[in-house]
Amino acid sequence: MAPYTEIDTPINEYFDPYYEPEDYYFWDEDPHKQVQQRMLFVLGAVSVLVIAFALLVVPKWVGVGGGLETVPAANTTDSVAAELVLDEPQEANIAPAANTASGAIAQVFTPEVRYWETQILGWAEEYNLDPDIIATIMQIESCGNPNAVSVAGAQGLFQVMPFHFSGGEQMQDPDTNARRGMNFYNEQLRYTGGDIYLSFAGYNGGYAASGGNYANWPNETQRYHNWAKGIYDDAKAGLTSSPALEEWLAAGGAPGCQIAASRLGLN
After folding, report:
1. Are both 87 and 117 inside the same structural domain?
2. Which pLDDT tens digit goes with each residue over 35-50?
3. Sign for the pseudo-dihedral over CA of 186, 197, 164, 99
4. Residue 133 to residues 13, 82, 115, 147, 182: CA-CA distances in angstroms?
5. C-beta atoms surrounding 160 within 10 Å
6. d(Cα 120, Cα 174) in Å, to the nearest integer?
7. Which residues pair with 155 in a beta bridge?
8. Structural domain tally of the chain?
9. At a CB cut-off of 8 Å and minimum separation 6, what does 94 contact?
10. CA separation for the pair 139, 123 (Å, rounded)
């Protein structure tokens, strides 16, 4: 937003390009008409305030999506999943309680993500999250590349947008990036009543996604939700490989993982 500056132009002329001085409205000299005019003016002003309140405040309270972005999304980048759109989910599901004591993440994740297993388990305990949730988000966001930067400016392992950081924070520092990303994901969990899958959508699309309807989400958020849900479900099923992850890699995720492998010295 531009800084405030004084405007020398008369207020009516500034807001109305068709303003003419002779069109300036004066109150009628009749006292009774003046009262009526003032009452109409007050009623009109109150109506405007009520409408503004309903549009800007009420959706935030009741969690209605409808395109209203009450809090910026953590990740507004284009999905690496290309243009593949999976089937629309049925009903929202509350995922099982977090398990941070397993001592390992699922085997389904790529080597670049499993490289961070020790840190993922530590973050899972610190933020009270299932480590496979953290691994799923890292898989889709950066494939384990701590220096990943999107065209929109999202940073690091969890592709967190710059406005989530405080001044002086190192956005690509893994611990800092995890703190900002996982705190935002936990906000989504609270907002959705613990729905891990809707919270995946909210991580990508913000509160307008986690509080809205799948059919109204952008294609990117639909894809993100479907990939995350599929990979996470495969992880919790105890599989040694994930069909959903293989599809994600084939649909556009593989190049990012190749870059991550190079950065981590895994080639």
Report:
1. yes
2. 566 666 666 665 556 4
3. positive
4. 56, 22, 16, 21, 10
5. 27
6. 10
7. 149, 160
8. 2
9. 193, 194, 195, 196
10. 15
